[in-house]
Every structure is written in structure tokens, then in C-alpha cells.
Amino acid sequence: MTEIDDPRDRLIVALDVASVAEAEALVERIGDAATFYKVGYRLAYAGGLELVPRLARAGLKVFLDLKLHDIGNTVEEGVRAITDLGATFLTVHAYPQTMRAAVRGRGRDGPRLLAVTVLTSYDEADAREAGYALSVADLVARRAAQAAEAGIDGVVCSAAEATSVRGIVGAERLIVTPGIRPAGSGTSDQKRVMTPGEARAAGIDHVVVGRPITGSADPRAVARAIVAELA
């Protein structure tokens, strides 16, 4: 696990809202309780890419969760174009050709690249339906090893696989986990989940939390409670 001086940096708040205005209002409500925000599909395609540099200029970190996957040249050029936005993290799917292309496009000054192994909304039945012969755990392990070989900076996986993944990718690479739910909150569409405290004990570097914070009447208080548990 990497050393992180400010425990707030361990929490990534998912700005899974419909508009930039909603996202900015949420960031303001959370205030200094959080320092790291995720911009995913929903917000990115509603003007959220323009929000990324604004958040970066405000001293906040941004996890740009676009899960890129295409032919090598397209991924390489896409990552190169994203570099100027100022995001801290960028996701790609953990396919070898895609990861190698992303590393080429990132160069020296681009965001840290995270490879998405298996979505946390997938269980064994979902993997079989998608045509994978491997179990979820074996598929995650294989993709984590390929990510390390490709020079990716870290992986996105379920907290349930974090311990085994750490043994594969080593201490120097990041492990980022969605599907984190504070005790007492629902799992929503996630199937492989943990609490923040369990995730921290498993050696995870950053946790992504959305609805338990963004859907709360007091998102700042919830963010602070999660950070305290992570610390």
C-alpha cells in the first residue's frame, strides 16, 4: 500500500450526477471533507470533461473514469488528448493491447493509469454469461498480472480480491476499489462489497463511494465519517 499523507485522499467521491451544476453544488456542500472526486460516464457526457480542469485548478484531485477500450491507436491518441485536462487518475479496461496503448499515450506527464479488472457489479453468473471460462477471482488475477506487465500504475478491483491482487501487483502499484458501502447502507447494484474499514484493512489505497455520500442529507458528514474510518 502506498503512503498517503492526507487520509482524505483515500476517499474518492463519485460525482454520478446529471449535470455540471449539480456536481459543483455537491463539491461545495462537501467542502473540505473530501479532496478527490470521480467523473464518470454520466457526468463526462453532460459537460463534465470541462469540469475536470476547474477542479484541478482548485487544488482537488480528479479520477476520470472513462474505462477506455478500443483499437490500440484510438486508445493511445485518446489518452494523449486527455492528458491536458489535469486528471490524477484515468481508467482503461484491462485488456493487454489496450493497456499497452494507454501507457504509450500517457507519456511522462499524463494521469496515472488504472486498469479495470472485473466490474464489481459482476458475479460468477455474470462472468459465465459474458463467455468467460475463468472464475471472477481467476480473471481478476490474470488481468492484474497483465496490468503489471504493461506498466499500468494500478488496478481497479473489488475489495474482495484486494489481498490477492496486492500479491500480484506489488506494493508500488495502486489498488482502487468501488463497491464500498458504509455499514448500514444498501449495496445498490454492487455485488462484491465491503465497508471502508474492511477495505482499509485489506490494504486498499483508494475507495470510491457514490450514493451513500451524494444521496445523503448531509454529504459532508458522511464523507468525514468515511475518512475517519479509512484513517
Automatic annotation (TrEMBL):
The keyword Lyase applies. SUPFAM superfamilies: Ribulose-phoshate binding barrel. Substrate binds at residues 16, 38, 65-74, 120, 181, 190, 210-211. Residues 10-226 form the Orotidine 5'-phosphate decarboxylase domain. Keywords: Decarboxylase, Lyase, Pyrimidine biosynthesis. InterPro entries: Aldolase_TIM, OMPdecase, OMPdecase_AS, OMPdecase_bac, OMPdeCOase_dom, RibuloseP-bd_barrel. The active site is at K67. It catalyses: orotidine 5'-phosphate + H(+) = UMP + CO2. Its EC number is 4.1.1.23. The keyword Ubl conjugation does not apply. Transmembrane segments: none annotated. It holds the Pfam family OMPdecase. Pathway: Pyrimidine metabolism; UMP biosynthesis via de novo pathway; UMP from orotate: step 2/2. Belongs to the OMP decarboxylase family. Type 1 subfamily. Homodimer. Catalyzes the decarboxylation of orotidine 5'-monophosphate (OMP) to uridine 5'-monophosphate (UMP). NCBIfam families: PRK00230.1, pyrF. This is Orotidine 5'-phosphate decarboxylase. It comes from Methylobacterium iners.
